[in-house]
Specification:
The complex is a heterodimer of chains A (316) and B (246). Chain A is mainly alpha-helical and 316 residues long. In chain A, 69% of the residues lie in helices and 3% in strands. Chain A is built from twelve helices and four strands. Chain A is globular and about 60 Å long. The longest helix of chain B is centred in the last third of the chain and has 16 residues. Chain B folds into two domains: 168 residues, Rossmann fold (3-Layer(aba) Sandwich); 71 residues, no CATH class. In chain B, a hairpin with a 2-residue loop joins strand 9 and strand 10. A six-stranded mixed beta sheet of chain B has the order 6-7-8-3-9-10, with helices on both faces. A four-stranded antiparallel beta sheet of chain B has the order 2-1-4-5, covered by helices on one side. Chain B contains eleven helices and twelve strands. The chains are: A mainly alpha (316), B alpha/beta (246). Chains A and B meet through helix 6 and helix 7 of A and helix 2, helix 3 and helix 4 of B. The complex binds adenosine-5'-triphosphate and magnesium ion. Magnesium ion binds next to helix 1 of chain B.
């Protein structure tokens, strides 16, 4: 039997859940949740990188994801898939750097509200430009391996190979980022700048360049997310916005700036969304993240993981 | 080593430093004393490039550093230990020190870094014990030691310190002053700003008195210690009546 793109095993008719669920079904939901949760987490990490470097939320983060997916689709007509993805990540990374240099760098101590307006303006600009470049058609990268109906048997649970790619590549990216921030001089420079900008400059660190770098990193990781999900979710000139909302929710849920917590928060939102279909119409799925976002903002603005004090001392 | 002429600086419309002229020679410990709000911090920030001078010149090793960004000035060998222990709270003690050595990496002197680290650990043994701890969780005194150690990691020709003893227990204050004295004996050049005028003058070669943005007095440290006005204003002691007020 076929369930969406995920095949599900009907050999065990045992009903374990009230609403006609069995274990395999249950795991399929979990896996779908983890897949989306991974992507949300990666988008949230993109938010966090820029937030840590500058203290601002980059509302154009979703557009980085979209540019990544779109350019990868375009490149994939000319070159093998891995090269297309690598080039797309590179192009988006450069775009991120250029955006920072053109629109952010020369501002002297901008207010938060001004930064919000600028990044929202940028997101609209990028969307419109993308519509002119790529039109309104919906695109997708091919499945990295196999097709939309192939599946891998994991102990009785069948999962799409693309799920493995999404989770695997994202996990590798997060581990690499973590390594970068923890153990390389450049990563430490970036953390020093976010901890204390003036003190970092007094150590000889060029704080302006670190901000540019944070935009590049954030764009790169967003683009990577855009590439790996595009076979599942498709990509369109305006598909960045909903992802940005989910990613933002996850970033807030985990506590702004705390990228490790974002991974946990991503899983929570992904799985919640996935199971929401079980008790309410699928159309309400997107309302979950907005509801969570509002609840968190009202009840626990520092996120669910620990206090503001701790999260301030424990960023990436 | 450092020569300042007719320096003026401030914040927005507020003019803080007025025609400051002073110098620090190689190997000297020079201290600047002055009341709260006199402009001591402003002066050090202007030298280090965090505040842009409006007029006048700052010459460091025969080079005008007024137009340079702070990161360039550090690279030239002029380091500031800022007021209020500005350590990187979210980084470990060791990472703080490594970042202090960042200009050494820029100078391609990577091989000296671990040697310097050992030197700092010898100077401040407690930092070695706390190497893997987050700097934000250190005690105030330990953070001050870390801030000094971090600046020393850059192998500065001139190290400027802004109130290194602020808010510390008397015993630790003594430690810190001993270390500054030791730095001086090893041939370092130090520009020290202090509220604790007595201790500062005790270890310094020369001193300046800064009052509302102007340098009103420049003298050898011993002479400033004996100066009646200085004693009255900054040492809490009135020689004329010979009553210690404290
Ligand atoms: N960021 C700022 N913006 C505006 N005015 C400032 C700023 N920082 C300091 N000032 C003002 O400049 C003057 C000199 O301040 P500064 O910090 O240099 O004094 P200070 O001599 O270091 O005093 P303290 O001994 O208390 O540290 C003060 O009147 C202060 O109010
Ligand atoms: Mg001061």
């Amino acid at each position: 039997m076929q369930f969406g793109s995920i095949r599900y095993n009907t050999d065990t008719p045992e009903l374990l859940f009230r609403y006609g669920m069995n274990w395999e079904f249950f795991f399929q939901y979990i896996i779908a949740g983890i897949t989306y949760g991974t992507i949300y987490a990666v988008v949230a990490i993109g938010f966090n990188i820029i937030y840590n470097a500058t203290g601002i939320i980059n509302f154009a983060q979703g557009e980085f994801v979209m540019i990544g997916g779109m350019t990868a689709v375009t490149f994939s007509h000319f070159m093998p898939l891995p090269f297309a993805i690598a080039s797309a990540v590179l192009v988006t990374m450069i775009t991120g750097g250029v955006i920072e240099i053109l629109f952010i760098r020369w501002l002297y101590k901008p207010s938060v509200i001004r930064m919000i307006i600028i990044t929202i303006g940028l997101s609209i600009l990028i969307r419109e430009m993308s519509m002119h470049i790529w039109g309104e058609s919906v695109r997708a990268l091919p499945y990295f391996t196999g097709t939309s109906v192939s599946s891998i048997n994991l102990g009785g649970v069948y999962i799409s190979p693309q799920v493995v790619w999404v989770v695997g590549i994202s996990a590798i990216a997060v581990v690499c980022l973590n390594f970068f921030f923890s153990y390389t001089l450049l990563g430490r420079q970036m953390r020093a700048c976010s901890a204390n900008r003036d003190a970092a400059r007094l150590c000889g660190i060029n704080a302006g360049n670190m901000v540019t770098l944070s935009f590049m990193l954030s764009a790169a990781i967003g683009a990577l997310a855009g590439c790996v999900v595009s076979p599942i979710t498709y990509v369109q000139y305006d598909s960045g916005t909903p992802l940005a909302i989910k990613g933002f929710t996850v970033a807030i849920l985990g506590g702004l700036g705390n990228s490790m917590a974002a991974v946990g928060a991503g899983m929570i939102l992904g799985v919640l969304e996935s199971f929401s279909i079980w008790i309410m119409p699928a159309a309400y799925k997107d309302a979950i993240s907005i509801t969570i976002l509002l609840l968190i903002l009202f009840l626990r603005p520092s996120g669910i993981f620990g206090s503001a004090e701790v999260s301030r001392l424990k960023e990436f | 080593m450092l020569r300042i002429r007719n320096l003026e600086a401030g914040y927005n419309s507020l003019k803080v430093l007025k025609k400051i002229s002073m110098h620090v020679s190689s190997g000297e410990i020079v201290t600047i004393i002055g009341a709260n709000g006199a402009g001591k911090t402003t002066l050090l920030k202007t030298i280090s490039g965090l505040i842009k001078a409006r007029a006048g010149e700052i010459v460091f090793e025969k080079k005008d550093i007024v137009p340079l960004a702070p990161e360039k000035i550090v690279l030239l060998g002029c380091s500031l230990v800022p007021e209020g222990r500005q350590v990187f709270a979210t980084l470990t003690v060791k990472e703080n020190l490594i970042l202090g050595a960042y200009v050494q990496y820029r100078r391609k002197r990577t091989d000296e870094v671990s040697e310097d680290m050992d030197r700092i650990f010898k100077l401040f043994p407690v930092l070695k014990e706390r190497g893997r701890q987050l700097a934000g969780t250190l005690s105030g005194g330990e953070q001050q030691m870390l801030a000094i150690g971090r600046a020393l990691m850059s192998r500065p020709k001139l190290i400027m310190m802004d109130e290194p003893s602020m808010g510390l227990a008397p015993l630790i204050v003594k430690d810190i002053f001993n270390i500054i004295r030791k730095l001086g004996e090893e041939g370092s050049t130090v520009l020290l700003v202090e509220q604790n005028a007595k201790a500062a003058l005790g270890i310094a070669d020369r001193g300046y008195v800064l009052e509302t943005g102007r340098i009103i007095l420049e003298e050898k440290a011993e002479e400033l210690l004996m100066n009646k006005d200085v004693q009255r204003a900054y040492l809490g002691r009135d020689l004329d009546s010979e009553v210690e007020i404290k």
